[in-house]
Amino acid sequence: MVTGRRAACWSAYAALLPMALSVVGVYIGTLLWTARVSVSSARIFPTGDFVGLGQYERLFRNARWLLSLENLAIYGALFILACLVVGFLLAVFIDQKVMGEGALRTVFLYPYAMSFVATGLVWQWILNPELGIQRVVRRLGFEDFTFDWIVDQDKALYTIVLATVWQASGLVMALLLSGLRGIDEELWKAARIDGIPVWRVYLSIVLPMLWPSLSTAFMLLAVMVVKLFDAVVAMTQGGPGTATEVPAKFIMDYLFGRANIGLASAASLVLLATVLAVVAPLYYARTKAMQRGLT
User: Fold this and answer.
1) Which partner for 68 in 35, 96, 144, 245 could form a disulfide, CB atoms 3.0-4.6 Å apart?
2) Does domain 70-294 have CATH number 3.90.1170.20?
3) pTM of the model as a whole
4) Which residues of 72-102 are buried (b: 16+ CB within 10 A; e: fewer)?
């Protein structure tokens, strides 16, 4: 019996071996190769020379890179906050056992399953002053109505926030709804007996209990922020001017458009370090909280 269990265990390890080799060879190998290229003077092709931190110095002297980081910080704060708020409200709404709950869950979650390359073009048409909302409202008789954010340098970034919140809030809704469904009904009965307002129950009791779901949602949204590329390309191409420039687009432009893989590699590693600095502490805190809950 023990021998059979050992055989099954080794079979499982053997099945996992290709994936483990892929992780080591592809992911870690690619990371190390990128790090090596980032300290060289490589442009079109990799080179074997060593220039130290020269590429990183050039990177942080590049006004376009600094602007992309500023845009990402603004976008990330608004996007994550809006998704958490909208997703929570949608989850609370569906948790009330509303009619057609299954259909509503599908409707709210469906945008997340769609490619933003396709839906981004639809949002571009909706927000286009000559084709979308502005034109429709003006045809209704409101000639002075203006909604030209997508071509306004000061507001174009907020159109990206609007469109991506529409796409991602359904995912937050699904995560938080699963957390809400795990809360004991006796808690609500006790709150009603004590006369505690519903909003107070959600704020002081429910939200702290949803911490695992909220932290998971936050980490997923943070990764989406860093990966932001397709929505920008589909909607604004980084414009008007550089108003919606983001790090991922900067990296792709320098990697393929400007043939400077050394600078693009340095930017990639800086972006990776940013992700780790944000996500790693949260993941550690979440793991510790779960361990305390089990003890």
Assistant:
1) 245
2) no
3) 0.87
4) beebbebbbebbbebbbebbbebbeeeeeee
